[in-house]
Design a protein that fits this description.
The complex is a heterodimer of chains A (about 160) and B (about 400). Chain A is an alpha+beta fold and about 160 residues long. Chain A is about 45% helix and about 15% strand. Chain A has a single domain, classed as Sufe protein. Chain: A. Chain A has a four-stranded mixed beta sheet with strand order 3-2-1-4, with helices on one face. The longest helix of chain A is centred in the C-terminal third of the chain and has 18 residues. In chain A, about 40% of the residues are buried. The model of chain A has no long low-confidence stretch (mean pLDDT about 90). Chain B has two domains: about 140 residues, Aspartate Aminotransferase, domain 1 (Alpha-Beta Complex); about 260 residues, Aspartate Aminotransferase, domain 2 (3-Layer(aba) Sandwich), CATH 3.40.640.10. Chain B has a seven-stranded mixed beta sheet with strand order 4-10-9-8-7-5-6, with helices on both faces. In chain B, strands 13-14-17-16 form a four-stranded antiparallel beta sheet, covered by helices on one side. A two-stranded antiparallel ribbon of chain B has the order 1-2. In chain B, strand 13 and strand 14 form a beta hairpin. In chain B, helix 3 runs parallel beside helix 4 and helix 10 packs parallel to helix 13. The mean pLDDT of chain B is about 95. Classes of the chains: A alpha+beta (about 160), B alpha/beta (about 400). Chains A and B meet through helix 2 of A and helix 11 of B.
Chain lengths: ~160, ~400
């Protein structure tokens, strides 16, 4: 496999200059995720309005390019989505990373699909799959108000 | 056999990784195996296999002799007084668990203290941790300094009248620090504190002499010594093996078994319950023969020269920050790159066939102290060359280019 497949421009760009990095004042949901094997950490902050729509989302974190890019692309995608759509997108992404060759959701534009598919390179690196999925599992945790930290070594 | 072209003794190097020659720089994790060791496993299973220490038929006697022969080879390799001071375990981890468990059971009580260091691998911390709950003991950590070193003074500072055992690494798998272990043991013994040395990184790279070191326990990982996985060695002074209770119960470790009670076998059988990793033990004998043929002093010299060369070229590379600058350094080169996470470094280097490790290397306490979530680590073995280190540096430069373009 060519390295370009994994470290495509999209990943490098988002990894180096992540979108939505930081914290905002009036968040009403948040969750932390940690991959103790790599030391990757993310903290996701959400503002979910009365219609269960994510009106704002940001994240703080430190980690490898894959984790940072995944969080960056995910937060871009989730803004202004309601709970149902958020769940559909998370489900679609996690299934793509696990088994599915493509993303199936009709909610994602071709442009966003390209971005997300850039992360599919981790499929061939089992040790790196957790880097790509950590922000997504942390988002689930934030949406469902799950107590405690998401830990990649305690899943499943 | 010459160290300069020793690579050809290791069949793994006949293979390509992503169409490149393999540059294996992960020996602190596990070393590659020479053909003699691999062949020995095949030969044993195809021509000589039997269980050891039980039956009296031809194969059983031959296998038992081969198995015990490795015990003597290990004894001589580490200059232990008696072959019965050599106990085979499933790994260095089990060796340390054996001591923590049996020593803890017999000698420790609430309020007692165990002294370890901030450099320790998880396998020389976690086994002791269980005693916190089961016995109410306290674990103290000797401070690592800014060079990634442990001084005798830092040990002395943490010794209290309640310190009952000191468990300490010989050679750090992250900073490469070779500790002044003989002086530390003398210090501990002057205060009647027994010492367990985690020799996982020491045994493959340094000349060992148990009688000179005078440590009470020394744990060895065989797969880091060009030997098979699933095997470790616990060296323990005979008096400890006699005094401590058995670790596991089962066949082979008993004397007489009656409904009313059980007596335990003689040393070292008392600590080798069940069918042992027979093929691995016998093959490990070939690992020691291999090391002896080259000479551990020659290996030390070769690796020291390479480490120096590696440090030189990495120091010249402005993007690389080497982690740890201990007084006496083993063949470990841990580093970070500005703006590139160690896992990204490892994945990019892998594409060139350069195998390094990234992460916390089972030393989370140390990484927290260093303020780093992870580091990248190139670690050397007898088969490495200056070309390998040049390739490492080239691939690091490629990595920097990818991330900074």
């Amino acid at each position: 496999m060519d390295l370009k497949d994994l470290y495509q421009e999209i990943i490098l760009e988002h990894g180096k200059n992540p979108k939505n990095l930081g914290k905002f004042e009036n968040f009403n949901k948040d969750a932390k995720g940690h991959n103790p094997l790599c030391g990757d950490k993310v903290h996701i902050y959400l503002k979910v309005d009365e219609n269960k729509k994510i009106s704002d989302i940001k994240f703080e974190g430190q980690g490898c390019a894959i984790t940072m890019a995944s969080a960056s692309i995910m937060t871009e995608l989730m803004k202004e989505k309601d709970e149902k759509d958020v769940n559909e997108l998370i489900d679609d992404f996690l299934k793509m990373i696990k088994d599915n060759p493509e993303l199936k959701s009709k909610l994602i534009s071709d442009d966003d699909k390209t971005k997300l598919m850039s992360l599919s390179g981790v499929k061939k690196y089992p040790m790196r799959v957790k880097c790509a999925t950590l922000p997504w599992h942390t988002l689930i945790s934030a949406m469902t108000n799950k107590p405690g930290e998401v830990n990649t070594e305690k899943e499943d | 056999m010459n160290i300069k072209d020793i690579k050809k003794e290791f069949p793994i190097f006949d293979n390509k990784v992503h169409n490149n020659d393999l540059v294996y720089l992960d020996s602190a994790n596990s070393s590659q195996k020479p053909k003699v060791v691999v062949d020995r496993i095949y030969d044993f299973y195809t021509k000589e296999f039997s269980n050891v220490g039980r039956s009296v038929h031809y194969l059983a006697v031959a296998a038992t002799n081969l198995y015990e022969n490795t015990r003597v080879l290990v004894q001589k390799y580490i200059n232990a007084k008696d072959p019965n001071e050599i106990v085979f375990t499933k790994g260095a981890t089990e060796a340390i668990n054996l001591v923590a468990n049996t020593f803890g059971q017999k000698y420790l009580k609430e309020g007692d203290e165990i002294l370890i260091t901030e450099l320790e691998h998880h396998s020389n911390y976690v086994p002791w941790h269980y005693l916190r709950k089961s016995k109410g003991v306290k674990i103290n950590f000797a401070d690592v300094d800014e060079n990634g070193d442990i001084s005798i003074e830092s040990i002395e500072k943490k010794i209290t009248p309640k310190t009952k055992i000191l468990a300490i690494t010989h050679l750090s798998n992250v900073t490469g620090a070779i500790l002044p272990i003989k002086e530390i043991i003398q210090l501990a013994h002057s205060k009647n504190i027994p010492v367990l040395v985690d020799g996982c990184q020491g045994a493959p790279h340094l000349k060992l002499d148990m009688q000179d070191l005078d440590c009470d326990f020394y744990a060895i990982s065989c797969h880091k010594m060009y030997g098979p996985t699933g095997l470790g060695v616990l060296y323990a002074k005979k008096k400890w093996l006699e005094e401590l209770p058995p670790y596991q119960g089962g066949g082979g470790m008993i004397g007489e078994v009656k409904k009313e009670g059980i007596t335990f076998g003689d040393l070292p059988n008392k600590y080798e319950a069940g069918t042992m990793a027979t093929a691995q033990v016998i093959a490990f004998g070939e690992s020691i023969n291999f090391i002896n043929k080259l000479g551990i002093k020659k290996i030390e010299e070769h690796e020291r020269e390479l480490t120096k060369y590696g440090e030189e070229i990495l120091r010249k590379n402005n993007s690389v920050k080497l982690i740890g600058n201990p007084k006496n350094k083993g063949s470990v080169l841990s580093f970070t790159l500005d703006g590139v996470h160690p896992h990204d470094i490892a994945t990019i280097l892998d594409e060139d066939g350069v195998a390094i490790r990234a992460g916390h290397h089972c030393c989370q306490i140390l990484h927290e102290k260093l303020g780093l979530p992870a580091t990248a680590r190139a670690s050397l073995g007898v088969y490495n060359t200056k070309d390998d280190l040049d390739q490492l540096n080239n691939s690091i430069n490629k990595c920097i280019k990818i991330f900074n373009s």
